[in-house]
Amino acid sequence: MKKQLPHSTATATHTTVAARFRTILLGSVLTVAALDGRASNPFIYHNEGPFVNGPSIAATCLAGAPPYAVGYVAGLPFKKEKETAEYMAAMPAMVGMAAGGAPFCILKKVFYDCPKAIAESQANSENHTTVYGPARKAQTQP
Question: Of 33, 51, 58, 120, which one has the fewest beta carbons inside 10 Å?
Answer without folding.
Answer: 120
